[in-house]
Please model this.
Amino acid sequence: MNSSFFKYLNVSTREEKWGMYVTTVGYSKVEPHEEYPNQKHPNSHVLTWNRGRILNDFYLIFISKGKGVFCSSLTEPKEVEEGTCFFLFPGIRHRYKPDARSGWEEYWVGFHGYYIEQLMKQHFFDPHQPCFHIGLNKELLILFNQMLDVVKSSFVGYAQQIAGITLQILGLISTLSLNEQSSGNPLEKLISKAKFLMQESVGGTVDMEHIAYQLPMGYSAFRKNFKKLTGYSPNQYHLNLRLSRSKELLESTTLSIEEIADQTGFDSIYYFSKMFRKKTGVSPNLYRKQFFESSASYSPFLKK
Model:
């Protein structure tokens, strides 16, 4: 589970020339009855329910847990629940807040650029219909967390990288919104929710019986149906998620092996290295070394 984090980014001429740039990214967990927003933002981004707010860029907010309400000058108040994304459009007054009884968890990204303006002019996303219920999609959660990792690491050239991730997110939301309208398989939706809950717990152990309870589904039926649809038992699937997450951290951060083991829920470096080697055939240190050597071979800027 993430800790609350956000960052507002400086935009240079280089980012503007790229055609798409990110202005802010963040994640926030708002507890029931907690004041909202629960983080201090720049004056230009202060949001109050009574006054609302107008921004200059496009924003996408994804509610991963809890529920609340959203409205704008173009839309009536609408309840938003977990699995909902909504867009904020430049120059349009809007307001939103979590339900005091449930709180919520939100991911967001702000973005702009001439490519985005052209995309929006094609009406792929409509300010009169800014909300999309796409469900608890694991791939979307991965992309948001990947973007947060990249921003925290701040490697040279990361502005273009997170612009690319944002474009992936927009494409995924467009696809998921179409699939959500046509998909009527309730079992697949329940297993999709289970996969999302496991992805949220990729940093530690997870109680599979509690996940089954949240669906809700009997534990035996959950194990049987999960393996039928994914090919893995729930515990094996979760272990694979943790190992995949460790690979991402080895590739995109300078965290030590011990820190990565801790962030992916392994009790010791020894056990982490053993499971990682079993999955990939190499140790975590060697995997990182080979990854950066391979990256350098494709980029003259990284060669000495």
Summary: The longest strand covers residues 58-72. Confidence is low (pLDDT under 50) at residues 300-304. Residues 30 and 103 are 5 Å apart (CA to CA). The chain has eleven helices and eight strands.
